[in-house]
Amino acid sequence: MSKRVSFIGLGVMGFPMAGHLQKAGYQVTVYNRTEQKARDWTSQYGGQMAASPAEAASGAELVFVCVGNDDDLRSVVLGQSGVLAGMQAGAVLVDHTTASARVARELEQIAAMQEIGFLDAPVSGGQAGAENGQLTIMVGGKPDTFAKAEPVMKAYARFCRLLGECGTGQLAKMMNQICIAGVVQGLAEALNFGQRAGLDCAAVVEVISKGAAQSWQMENRHQTMLKGEYEFGFAVDWMRKDLAIALEQAAQIGASLPMTAMVDQFYQEVQNLGGQRWDTSSLLARMKP
Amino acid sequence: MSKRVSFIGLGVMGFPMAGHLQKAGYQVTVYNRTEQKARDWTSQYGGQMAASPAEAASGAELVFVCVGNDDDLRSVVLGQSGVLAGMQAGAVLVDHTTASARVARELEQIAAMQEIGFLDAPVSGGQAGAENGQLTIMVGGKPDTFAKAEPVMKAYARFCRLLGECGTGQLAKMMNQICIAGVVQGLAEALNFGQRAGLDCAAVVEVISKGAAQSWQMENRHQTMLKGEYEFGFAVDWMRKDLAIALEQAAQIGASLPMTAMVDQFYQEVQNLGGQRWDTSSLLARMKP
Fold it and tell me: What ipTM does this complex have?
């Protein structure tokens, strides 16, 4: 009989991720705070829905969580109706939320008291990656726990790697977001500069993307940036949540992040322009006259 | 009979570039301020050397210049012994220096009075690109002037594109350097963060380079950055010269470059650490305890 798994949190990421598990042949039980989403999910994919995280997790070998932030995560994992109340010894809890390393370590310890394994496993690849089953997963935790979860995560991952002990997945995701902040701000300053200088920026990008200035953001975002199109992609609100986590972590370990802190403030300006849901590349929007 | 061309400025870039012209079958006459370099060049490649830029340029269909900055450029182009004093009507002057758009427009006007075409044609690809004949060339100027020079520049270019009127090549190069400033600072902040957090940064980069944080700098510089190796590549002194040009241009057109200006200041700190000749990726060095 196929594995019983459960998925908690059917947002833009979790909804298709849970769908890939069901399509891969697992018996999936889902839970979502807004019940209608869970109903939509079962009509689309089959599977089961549950009335609480604990009920969804009951009897599952693997429980996946993908929610908004540290507080959401604690609320679906801990307490009377949380997943740990339903899980059995030997099962594994995988958290796909981008959250702090601290909450990951906290949950690993609590889960261990019930002999439940825990992995922090934030993803990158965005909504498109979730829908196509092509996510990249950065994992922290114990190797034997990872070994149990990895084959199942392959249902929606293009690349999945254990990077070290618990918390390491979250720290790696922070590195990812810090890099993106620098790349996008540099690209936005360059495009604004080029537009004000009257250049054919698309032609310039075609040339400079062949060399040391090249980046994924340059190749995949310059056209929409030049058109001022931002109604897609990874939202500014989520980026600010992630950067806040990185900045707090940096303060704990004495890492100076001057560019990241500045770009975070620029995203505040984008939010003030009404850009809460705009793509991360909207840093260019705040430079317009 | 093959074309007569001349090359002024046999630095780390110009020396191999002029060599590629000679190897491609052109009759090359070189000039260099330090005469020994010109002597070394003729012993290695053949060709001729001249006692002044004017003498080198005399009788050439195309004259290439690759020197340090605006002032060096004016000194080899203008005046009694400058290239324009030796050039004939109908010839073309190509400037490979990374310089200001202003000096490019100034020289185009002066050259036009002698019916000499002018192109600003800064390159990217570094010393390795010059040696392998794989440079990228960003060109500004008139299409008919470009048509005369392009086939010859192919001796050392992988990619060569006319981007618009005179000055456009320099403006494109500025966009290139602005992008690099953001990418490298983001990467440096991320690697410093990861090292202080105790991560296996090479493993993290292997994962995050598959997604939206990817960049040429990440792929080609993270290993040397993690080892603290900076004795190669594009020097901090040159990067600061280029960023100064971009910042001055930005002030003229009202483009705000907050990240670029900050990173330029960080390069000052790298210079103060003795890193004048270190690679651009040495932004990480100033973050060490």
Answer: 0.96
